[in-house]
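Dear Dr. L.,

I hope this message finds you well. Following up on our conversation about the binding site, I have prepared a predicted three-dimensional model of the protein together with 1,3-dihydroxyacetonephosphate. For your records, I am including the exact sequence and ligand specification that went into the calculation, followed by the structure tokens. Please feel free to forward this to your student if that is useful.
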Amino acid sequence: MSRKHLLVGNWKMNLGPHQAREFASSLAAEISALKRTDVWVCPPMVSLAAASEALLSSPVLVGAQNVHWAKTGAFTGETSPLFLKDLDVTFSLTGHSERRTYFGETSETVAMRTETALAEGLKVIVCVGETETERANGTTDQVLGDQLAPVFARLSAALAPQVVIAYEPVWAIGTGKVASIQDIAATHKFIQQLWNAQGYDHQPTILYGGSVNPQNFAEILALKEVSGALVGGASIKLDQWLELIRIAEATAE
Ligand code: 13P
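The resulting structure of the complex is given below.
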């Protein structure tokens, strides 16, 4: 049986509460029932409530961009998975490359965040990806393996279905450079093999991210190794986001 596509918009540090409500209301007004695609969006933390309210009667799910590994405590500036649940948020990203690059997150802390979020009943999209230098040096597989190893070490087969992997080459994020179709297919296949080596009893959902737009999406989504996309820039431009949803709905798996 074919699986639905998954299209996730990461709004990053864009759209504060008022703008988020406005954008989400416009999205809710434009979007009709979805047959083949799950659509999720990740507003900034302070905009989660506004976006959730505006999207309440739409099929779009709202999630966080990050989540902490502790349930409460002295962790200034962080957000507990319990607080996300309190807002009826159903999922979170972890390990986005901007968190790793600018905020010193390590694969170990990403794994800790992932573990607690899953234990508290959230779904998690774990983001991984290599830098341009790492790809040029031929170490992409090693880097991805090292990023995922601590996550797998803490992930039981029972909770594995709640995890999505997002492959986002760092050099393709926000740059307009997209990985080649061959590289996307090969890298997703490699991640699939890593996953299968853990003995989880289902195939992983693996998203591609990095400069996805309405011009390149159909070709990427046509790859059998690709389950969908994690989108930054094009997810906060309503016309482009609606077009990506339309493409996901129209593309055969
Ligand atoms: P862009 O789509 O803007 O390249 O961002 C990708 C990304 O980082 C999504 O998490």
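In brief: Residues 41 and 62 are 5 Å apart (CA to CA).

With kind regards,
A. P.
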